Amino acid sequence: MKGSFNEKAKEIVEKLTLEEKCGLLVYDSKGVERMSIPDYNWWNESLHGLARGGTATMFPQAIGLAATFDCQLMQNVGNVIGTEARAKYNESSKRSDFDIYKGLTLWSPNINIFRDPRWGRGHETYGEDPYLTSRLGVSFVSGIQENDGTYMKAAACAKHFAVHSGPEELRHGFNAEVSKIDLAETYLPAFEALVTEAGVEGVMGAYNRLNGQPCCASEFLRSTLYDKWNFDGYFVSDFCAIDDFHEFHNVTASKTESAAMAINVECDLIAGNKTGCDDILDAYRKGLISEETINRAAFKVLRTRLRLGMGAKTPYDDIGLESVDSPQSNQLSYEAAVKSAVLLKNDGILPIDKNKIKSLAVIGPNADSRAVLKGNYTGTASGYTTFLDGIKSAYDGRIYYSEGSHLFMDKIEPFAHNDDRISEAVAAAEHSDMILLFVGLDASLEGEQGDTGNPYASGDKENLMLPPCQQRLLKAMEKTGKPLVIILSSGSSVNPMSSKASAVLQTWYCGSHGGKALADIIFGKVSPSGKLPVTFYESTELLPDFSDYSMKNRTYKYAENNVLYPFGFGLTYSEFKAKELSVNYNDNGLEAKIEFENIGGRYSENVAQLYIRCSSKYFPLNGRLCGFRRFSAESGESVTVTIQIDYESFLSVNENGERFLDKDAEFELFAGVSQPDTLSMKLGGEKCLSVKVKPGKMYKMHKNA
After folding, report:
1. Strand 503-506 to 342-346 pairing
2. Which whole-number Å values give the CA distances from 512 to 138, 331, 406, 543, in the listed order?
3. Coil, helix or strand for 201?
4. In sequence order, which ranges of 44-150 are alpha helices (DSSP H)?
5. What is the DSSP letter of 225?
6. At what angle do helices 255-264 and 277-285 cross, to 10 degrees?
């Protein structure tokens, strides 16, 4: 059927005037009535649920979804999003409403690598690891695009191509200087996987330059995408990124030149409200762009619309409003919130025994906050369960609630003294058996430039500490001497700086059912089982400069110090022992079998993790994640988890960005429920098993396959 879409798109292009073709190459595309092509706005969002278009199921923010380490869940989430997008599109189209955020082209997922914890948009991503990002991203895209064999239900878009990860303040004119090793090892693999495995329909270019070339007009990125990976979709600019060519990058002198540069290097669709259709036409008239090139871009955007069913009857046409915000999709959101929570510390205080704890102090600016559930790029949930709401529903004892402090300002009431809620919080704590302290951030403090309330950092963070007002609240709670549990909500690495907390639970921005999930975890109805998709650092002082895109001393693969909680770490309420590890070589790499026994006192889920370490100087310093899978076990039960490790996971990358198998190096495979590092063990993790791996066997079998 692909061929017929190609033929149909070419046929339509041949019948369009130059002006009509140019009108298709902007995000708010103009319809062509005589050809039955309706108006269409390409811009829609769906990082963790359909966004900005009214009521929709709200899932945990992307970084929280990543913490689940659950590919099947990601596919299910994507499937819900694709269904709700189609339902809303069907309903709005019936009413001739073709406005923004109502189309089928979803500009998600964000698969940039979260290389620096200061980056405000990091919570839109799947974390710092390209393997985890690629596996979750492929599943998410497959769910969204669910193809019936002919038509896509909706179209995903991998962004921001490539290497974009702050600083937000500089993004419009920034030149990211990246080595070929880091490109091949870290920044490009997830994009390659989404293109070559998931068949992602769209790719969005980043604002920045990459090694001197604007990403929306980079010949290197164009050749990588189309010539090397055989990309078969459409390429769109980030919003107003084409304006950056002449306004900030200074590689062109006008909108006309910028439009020509973009279209000439196969940026098919211009998103923005400055450079647009008239500038493409002007470029043609001035000889800066050929009609053949315009035809190529028009062909690609029309092909995508045809794949989505433009002008045809599809199996998705009957999906209606009853499919939006359904009980089933909300149950999935709740399950995702449960699986995303990461227990970082626990001296046994959790889960809370309701029979022993007669009163609770629920303290903090995030305790009754809806904003902390949402993250950014979010839709409107039909209902929200805050943390306080969830606790009230699950607990019959006395609750003493105090906001304690503002999220970031020194006072809550404008005419009061600083720290005007701390005495109330102290009183609540002193009347209670235990303190639940809800601190952290929300998307008003970390996020995209222009979307947040921290103009001093344009959405980025200046450090990893809690806001000063929350630090003072924390110290006041510690001084009460009451048992203290910190519930930390953020989209990134935050150091709460508390040695006196009995437990620390990271909840991210956990979606509309986050309060119910939190209550079920702390009262022991379910066990936490999430894992960190990013390294939690001690301080920014030991990190490289924010604008340095080298991976040296960044992420678990290259960190040499400064780690507070490691990537892949997360406790449960039970205890799991890796008992046996065996490997079998096959054509694609090897198959690992790990036997785990739940030697703790209760049922729990966990995540099997495989890491490969290699003596080659071209391999990541601390090894590489090469496999993971969720599993569950009852107390005393043993289960065997089987994971295929692809041949590519054993390859090194040389200075030219070329992948190769270092046959002279030694390889060792580690299996457990965390990284095989000493800090994970010290923090309460379980010991990993290991086995030597023979690269020669893999090489020969792969070569002969």
Report:
1. antiparallel
2. 25, 11, 22, 34
3. coil
4. 62-66, 71-94, 130-145
5. I
6. 90
Report the distance separating Cα 631 and Cα 241, nearest Å.
43
- Average pLDDT, stretch 282-296? 98
Average pLDDT estimate for 227-234: 98
Inter-residue contact 257 to 288 (CB < 8 Å): yes
Amino acid at 265: V
For residues 27 and 196, give the distance between their C-alpha atoms in angstroms, rounded to a whole number: 25
| Run of H or E residues at 468 | helix 468-479
Q: What angle do CA 696, 701, 704 make, to 5 degrees?
A: 125
Indicate the pTM of the whole model: 0.97
* 203 burial via Cβ count (<10 Å: 0-12, 13-18, 19+): buried
Task: Please state, in angstroms and rounded to a whole number, the distance separating the CA atoms of residues 71 and 93.
Answer: 33
501 neighbors 486 (Cβ within 8 angstroms): yes
Element (H, E) at 340: helix 327-340
Rg (CA), the chain: 26
Q: C-alpha angle with apex 168: 164 to 170, nearest 5 degrees? A: 90
CA distance 77 to 329: 8
The DSSP annotation for 513-562 comes to THHHHHHHHHTTSS------SSPEES-STTSPPTT----TT-HHHH--S-
pLDDT band of 457, cuts 50, 70, 90: confident
Residue 414's CB is within 10 A of a number of other CB atoms, namely 7
**Inter-helix orientation angle 291-307/2-15, to 10°:** 130
pLDDT on residue 696:
66
pLDDT digits (tens, 9 = 90+) for 403-417: 999 999 999 999 999
Tell me the mean pLDDT in the region 200-206.
98
Residues marked as catalytic: 238
Q: Who's near 165: CB < 8 A, 6+ residues apart?
A: 112, 113, 114, 115, 116, 119, 121, 122, 549
Per the omega criterion (within 30 degrees of 0), is the bond before 167 cis?
A: yes
Question: What does the pLDDT look like over 590-632, one tens digit per residue?
Answer: 999 999 999 999 999 999 999 999 999 999 999 999 999 999 9
Amino acid of residue 72: Q
Contact yes or no for 333/58 (Cβ under 8 A): yes
pLDDT at 261: 98
> In the chain, what percentage of residues exceed pLDDT 90?
95
Query: What does DSSP say about strands 202-205 and 157-161: parallel, antiparallel, or unpaired?
Result: parallel
Q: Which residue has the tokens 């529903």?
A: 393
Please give the pLDDT value at position 242.
98
Q: Which domains does the chain have, with CATH numbers?
A: 327-565 (3.40.50.1700), 576-704 (2.60.40.10)
